[in-house]
Amino acid sequence: MKIPVFQIDAFTDQPFSGNPAAVCPLDEWLRDDEMQAIAAEMNLSETAFFRPKENVDGEHGLRWFTPTVEVDLCGHATLASGHVVLLHLNRNLSQVTFHTRSGELGVQFKDGLLELDFPTNPPTKLDDPTEIQAVREALGSAPQEILHANTTMAVFESESEVAALQPDFSAVANLNEPWLLATAPADDAEYDFVSRFFVPTAGINEDPATGSTHTILMPYWAAQFGKDELVGRQISKRGGTMFCRLVSNRVKIAWHIVEVMQGELAL
What is the rounded distance in angstroms from the CA atom of residue 132 to the CA atom of residue 147? Predict the structure, then answer.
């Protein structure tokens, strides 16, 4: 069996930056263990698999796998999958709908960019003193505020504090919510806020550029800044940019992608 595979860098306009995803269009689903084995072989933060819905143009089922686990939501691999559908499989479409574990997710062309349409995930304040102390110890630093939204979010006063973090990944993995997001206002006037994202339990110590975290970040920072349009910058080694719009209970997340490779998997 031959399966097309695309490797795409998302949330960047330069190759070998942003977040790399492998995308595999399918006619029929593979077994779960086969998809997990392919994701391990690709060894990227996510490998996406999608197949068309029968008799429904522009709608697909979509699943995402890290090298070690299947995940419920992934932004950059959804953006990359939208690129494959709209640029390679059906150029007559201007948008695509993916049916996923997290509901219906959209990708469309807008102002020369690809834009995600995701549900918001507003964070709430973490009140457990024991868990607050565990987060501080895992980060080796004391954020000014700690919140959670199925992901722990640590808010710092300055970008330099976020940039300097050197987490204890074993301690992060032992948190009650072991996906840990750090954020602060941006220093550079080009951006509004910055972030980093640590996910050792998914086989990724630090994710380079994460769309899904902006479903948490955008409601928080929109309230802080009093604006519904913000630009986020993920300050990982590879880096990534997200132009975000808050629309009711949805967040639109857009930026460029760069396709770096096409090939075939042989099963």
Answer: 9
Backbone angles phi, psi at 169, to 5 degrees: -70, -30
Q: Are 54 and 69 in contact (CB under 8 A)?
A: no
Q: What is the pLDDT of residues 206-216, one digit of tens each?
A: 999 999 999 99
Considering 41, 46, 70, 161, which one is annotated as catalytic?
46
> Residue 191: enclosing H or E segment and its boundaries?
none
DSSP assignments along 220-266, one per residue: HHHHHHT-SEEEEEE-SSS-EEEEEEEETTEEEEEE-EEEEEEEEEE
Write down the residue that tokens 């049916």 correspond to. 99
- What is the pLDDT confidence band of residue 96, given thresholds at 50, 70 and 90? very high
Give the E-state strand segments of 111-220 in sequence order.
113-119, 124-125, 145-148, 152-155, 180-185, 193-199, 204-207
Structure tokens at 1: 């069996």
Q: Are 232 and 263 in contact (CB under 8 A)?
A: no
Are 86 and 58 contacting, i.e. CB atoms less than 8 angstroms apart? Answer: no
Containing 52, the helix (H) or strand (E) segment is strand 46-52
Q: In the annotation, is 131 catalytic?
A: no
Give the mean pLDDT of the chain. 96
pTM of the model as a whole: 0.94
User: Which residue carries 């197949």 as its tokens?
Assistant: 51
Q: What is the pLDDT of residue 3?
A: 97
**Alpha-carbon Rg for the chain in angstroms:** 18
